[in-house]
């Protein structure tokens, strides 16, 4: 353990801890005798960049002056041969002009333009200096990085193979991230995933999300390859949401009566749940979710036929139930009407026969064939 004084400074022999750590560095903490490293989230701040047109004007003036020195030096050296001026003056002017020309090439790399919904992350020798937003022509320190290297970009092929990347080549190493970050809305069409729903049935599901970067510092410094991070988290969130709900209501339970959410019947609710989970997962990367929708939902091929027969059986049962309920109400109404109007007086046996005949006629699949009884009612 590190002994700390009243002011928070470590004693001799301990490790000093800076009270104001930079945003892009880790904070080492000692908890329960075990040192843990906690990364501090990076916060976007406004960067400074000059007007590009003014800088271009000063650059042109510098180029003109540099060329003038070279021309003056060459002219002076030519006049020195005639003995009018010392030769060394011409050499000095020529050297100054050449040095000025070389020096003027360095600031030229500091010019950049930003289109609408575009930002530039300013990084100087590994230190975050801010983010420039807004359209226009800018000039900034020419030593600002134009490409930001991912954390694992410096690993060798052997190191990648040791981490499970066997067979990888240098071409498989992650590419650098451009310092220019697009703030436009982007669309990610996810692939079809095979997952199990809440009841354990294998289903195929896919989604589409609309996302955009809202915090460039978090997107660049808090995660590696933020676009790949979005893809991975989208798949993970979709799997998690799909496992929370059943594919459809079960006819043997009271799910439908209880208003339980299912993937098939409540697309809007499921999409909203997916959007909320994605927003929570991608917030640490400075990414906002504008929309998330399901684009594909079906049973897996191995159980599709079985589940189709099950759905057909459930539909037939539901239809038969409605038919029986309607037939019973019609028979009851007919008996009550006959008794009330005194059309015919039937005993219990004849009522049972009438109910049986009416139920057969009303619930049958085919049209009934009329039969005329030529005898008495009891023959």
TrEMBL record:
Keyword check for Ribosomal protein, yes or no: no
Query: What SMART domains does UniProt report for this protein, alphabetically?
Result: PHB
Q: Which domain of life is it from?
A: Bacteria
- GO BP term, example: proteolysis
**One Pfam family recorded for the sequence:** Band_7
TM region positions: 55-73, 85-106
Keyword Hydrolase among record annotations? yes
What are the protein's UniProt keywords? Hydrolase, Membrane, Protease, Transmembrane, Transmembrane helix
- The UniProt record lists the Band domain at 109-311
One Gene Ontology MF term: peptidase activity
The protein here is known as: Membrane protease subunit
């Amino acid at each position: 353990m590190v002994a700390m004084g009243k002011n928070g400074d470590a004693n001799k022999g301990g490790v000093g801890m800076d009270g104001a750590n930079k945003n892009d560095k880790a904070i080492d903490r000692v908890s329960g005798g075990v040192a843990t490293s906690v990364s501090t989230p990076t916060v976007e701040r406004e960067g400074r960049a000059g007007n590009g047109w003014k800088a271009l004007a000063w650059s042109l003036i510098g180029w003109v002056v540099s060329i003038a020195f070279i021309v003056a030096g060459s002219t002076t050296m030519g006049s020195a041969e005639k003995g009018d001026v010392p030769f060394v003056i011409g050499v000095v002017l020529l050297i100054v002009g050449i040095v000025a020309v070389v020096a003027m090439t360095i600031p030229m790399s500091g010019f950049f333009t930003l289109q609408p919904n575009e930002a530039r992350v300013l990084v100087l020798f590994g230190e975050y200096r801010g983010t420039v937003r807004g359209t226009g022509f800018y000039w900034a320190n020419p030593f600002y990085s134009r490409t930001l290297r991912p954390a694992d970009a410096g690993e060798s092929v052997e190191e990648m193979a040791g981490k499970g990347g066997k067979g990888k080549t240098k071409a498989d190493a992650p590419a650098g991230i451009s310092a220019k970050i697009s703030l436009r809305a982007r669309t990610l069409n996810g692939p079809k995933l095979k997952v199990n729903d809440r009841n354990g049935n294998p289903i195929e599901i896919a989604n589409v999300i609309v996302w955009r970067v809202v915090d460039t510092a978090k997107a660049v410094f808090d995660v590696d390859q933020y676009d790949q991070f979005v893809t991975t988290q989208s798949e993970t969130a979709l799997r998690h949401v799909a496992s929370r709900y059943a594919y459809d209501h079960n006819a043997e339970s009271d799910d439908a009566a209880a208003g339980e959410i299912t993937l098939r019947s409540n697309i809007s609710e499921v999409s909203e749940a997916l959007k909320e989970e994605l927003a929570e997962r991608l917030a640490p990367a400075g990414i906002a979710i504008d929309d998330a929708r399901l684009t594909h939902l079906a049973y897996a091929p191995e159980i599709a036929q079985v589940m189709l027969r099950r759905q057909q059986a459930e539909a037939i049962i539901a239809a038969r139930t409605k038919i029986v309920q309607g037939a019973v109400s019609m028979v009851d109404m007919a008996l009550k009407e006959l008794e009330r109007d005194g059309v015919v007086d039937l005993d219990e046996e004849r009522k049972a026969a009438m109910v049986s005949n009416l139920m057969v006629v009303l619930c049958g699949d085919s049209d009934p064939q009329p039969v005329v009884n030529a005898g008495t009612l009891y023959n």
